[in-house]
């Protein structure tokens, strides 16, 4: 499964980068395949392990912010691995054709 999620602290002002970094740090330390871009962090693994990482990432931000917004999108597709890479490679292959 791949989960793309965004954790946003609320009530801390406009500069939220250091709070978001706390969440991304949790993801990177998890050891699961992941990728961060300007809008979302994507993580790949089994349901329980991915959701545990998302929960801990939210908790890391929640520890410093009075309110947290979470946006989450999941691709639940049993048996597929390396989707973070293979899905992008497929699109790139079509773009190159």
From TrEMBL:
Domain Thiamine-binding protein: 3-92
Record SUPFAM superfamilies: MTH1187/YkoF-like
Superkingdom of source: Bacteria
Coiled-coil zones: none
Pfam families from the UniProt entry: Thiamine_BP
Assigned protein family: Belongs to the UPF0045 family.
Matches recorded under NCBIfam families: MTH1187 family thiamine-binding protein
Protein's name in the database: MTH1187 family thiamine-binding protein
